[in-house]
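Practice problem: PTS system, glucitol/sorbitol-specific, IIC component
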Amino acid sequence: MDYITKFAEGFMSLFQTGAETFISWMTGIVPVVLMLMVAMNTLIAFLGEERVTKVAKVSSRNPFTRYLVLPFVSAFMLGNPMSFTMARFLPEFYKPSYYASNAQFCHTSNGVFPHINPGELFVWMGIAQGITQLGLNSMELAIRYMFVGLVMNFIGGWTTDFTTAFVCKQQGIQLSKEVDEVAVTE
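Answer key — structure tokens:
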């Protein structure tokens, strides 16, 4: 009977700890994420969607802006999953690469900008809690993770360009490297 009682107590303790963590998030990180989302939507409204669209279109012209700047700006301004919509301004050939770069950035920036991917914030919070218990600064780790992520996301995006070219050649298809103005305006 003692085993069953200890199991039941441990089982309930798990849910009590989960509830305490949830409440701490409701008074800590959730308001921060909400305010960041409001700030980003306000900035987009202030700048105008046309200007944000123009930035995306201009940054599609070379690999550095396409896989370094555009994913950063779109993830920061729009968050996950809306940041993927910026691919509509890219030629068809570059869309898979943008997706690869942007998808990774939505994860590697979560420690510094939690509003980008709040659905996976629990992953970062678990890591940060461990770092904090070691007496280390979790923001230093978040910034390093973001910078390494930016470089690796760029490499991942550009590598996907080569993969796309290989698959296109293998399949005998040709994807456009020019922006389709009709698709952008729809």
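Discussion: The helical segments are 2-27, 29-47, 49-59, 63-78, 95-108, 121-133, 138-171, 181-185. Students who identified this feature from the tokens alone can consider the problem solved.
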